[in-house]
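Dear Dr. K.,

Following up on our conversation at the group meeting, I've run the structure prediction for DUF3768 domain-containing protein from Pseudogemmobacter faecipullorum. I'm pasting the input sequence below exactly as I used it, so you can double-check it against your construct before we proceed with anything downstream. Let me know if the numbering doesn't match what you have in your notebook.
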Amino acid sequence: MNEADLDYEPTVTEVIAFQNDLFRTHLGNHPYVKGKVLATSGVRQRGPQFLNDVAEAVRTFSAFNKEDDPHGEHNFGVIYVAGVKLYFRIDLYDPDYRFGSNAPHDLTATRRVLTVMHPQDY
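The predicted structure tokens came back this morning:
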């Protein structure tokens, strides 16, 4: 480690990606990164075991790439569960879930919504 390492300050994008990863890996149950986890009706209709498998696939996902995550915010991913292709997306809202967050890096001003869906629902 050198002196330059001590002066490093993460970018807003890096902060948002880190927060999104905490939210995703805790499936919305992180004490500081607050929000909701939802699934579209088509995903929910596949039953509780499928939903458990989806939750595990989302929680453990790490294959972010430039094609699916062009801004580097770790807010979108493609997963396969029991041979079914699904998307997940994290959107950032104000604390009342009415509008987009004006300060997406600020945990007091932002609530996340992670939605799992079939590609045709996107």
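Two things stood out to me. The CA atoms of residues 13 and 71 lie 8 Å apart. Residues 3-121 form one domain.

Best regards,
J.T.
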